Amino acid sequence: MPEPTLCCRVPGAYCDRCDLLVGLPGLRVIGVERDGRDCLVVTVESAAEPMGCRSCGVIARGHGRVDVHLVDAPAFGRPVRIVWRKRRWLCPDPGCEVASFVEQDERVASARAVMTRRACWWVIEQIRREHASVNGIRRHLGTGWRTVWESIKPLLQAAADDESRFEGVTILGVDEHVWHHASTKAIEDGGRGPKELTGMVDLTRDPNGHIKARLLDLVPGRSGATYRQWLDQRGEAFRSSVQIATLDPFHGYKNAIDDQLQDARSVLDAFHVVKLATQVARTSAGGCSRTPPVTAAARTTRCTESATSCAPGRTGSPTGSSPGSTPRSPPGTNTSKSNSPGSVPNRSAPLTTSTPTPPAVPSPRRSLTPSPPARSRRSLVSGEH
Questions:
Q1: This prediction's pTM
Q2: What does the alpha-carbon distance between residue 156 and residue 167 come to, in Å, rounded to a whole number?
C-alpha cells in the first residue's frame, strides 16, 4: 500500500481524521500551522452546499469568503486560534431586504464573537471546577482579560436567568461567602460591589447516591432576612420539595429555615461538624497538657522530707526540733537556708514551678536519738520557750 502513514490521501480534499481531531461541527480543516507567538493556527471552512436567503428563502449566490479569527480552547500545551473562512452570499431577489449575508453557526461561535463557544464553556468550567481566575485563564488562552470576560458574560447571564436549575432540589445547602476585601462601592462608581454574599447549593444525591454540589444562586447580603427573602421568591413548589436543609451554625439561617421550610429537616453541614469537633478535641487535648499557672507559693523553694532529715546538724524525727536548730518557717516563706549556723544557703533543693503539693507524710520509723517534745507552731513563730 503506497504511503500508508499519509493522513490526507487526496490532495485538495478534506481529511476526516483532522476534522475529528479539531472537532468543530460542520467545519472542515484545510490547514494547520504555528505562528510566531507559538500558537496553533487552524484554518477551517464549510463544505460547498446550497444556501437559501434568510429573509425570502430564495437560493443565494456565493460571493467569496471572509476570514474570521476566533480564540479557541488551548490544545497540546499551546494557545489555539481558529481562522474560519466564512462564505458570503448574495440574494438574487431585488425586492429582498437582505442584499447579502455571511454564514453563521451558533454551535461554533455567536455572531460577532471573538471566542468559540467551546472555549467560553471551557473558561466557565475552569472557574467553576478548578477555582481559576480570569487573569490566569487569559494567559492560557493568550488573550486579554476583557476578551475573556465579555465572551463568557452572556452565557453566565443566561444561566442565571434559567429557572429550571431550581427543579428537583431535595437537599438544600446555604453558607456565607466573602466575595472580596476591597471597596464596597457600586461597580459603576469604580468599586467591586457588595462584599458579603449568601450562597445556595444543591446537594441532592444522584441515582447512585453520589452528591455533586451545584451552585444555585448568590445573592448580596449575609443575614437570615436575605435567606428568607430568597426562599420566599422560589415559590411553594420549590419549598415543598426540599426535604433536608443544611446550614452553618448561624441562628439567622436557622430562623429562615423554620419560617420558610417548615417540613424540611435542619442538619448542620459536614464542614462545620468536622470543624467544631476538631476545635473541641484540640481544646481538650490542650487542657490536659497545659502547665498550671505558677502561684507565689509555688515559686518558693520547698524543703521536702528527705532534704530536712539530711540537712547538716539535724538528727531525729522530722516532726521534732533539736536544740539549737532553726524552727521551720510558716508556709509560703523561703526555707532554702540550712539549719546549721554560718552555713551557706542550701542550693541543692530544686526550685518548684508546679502547683503546690501537700507536705509529705512523716515516716513511721523511730529515730535512734530521742527528740524533745515538739513545740506548737505559735510558740516557734513568736520565739516563746
A1: 0.61
A2: 19
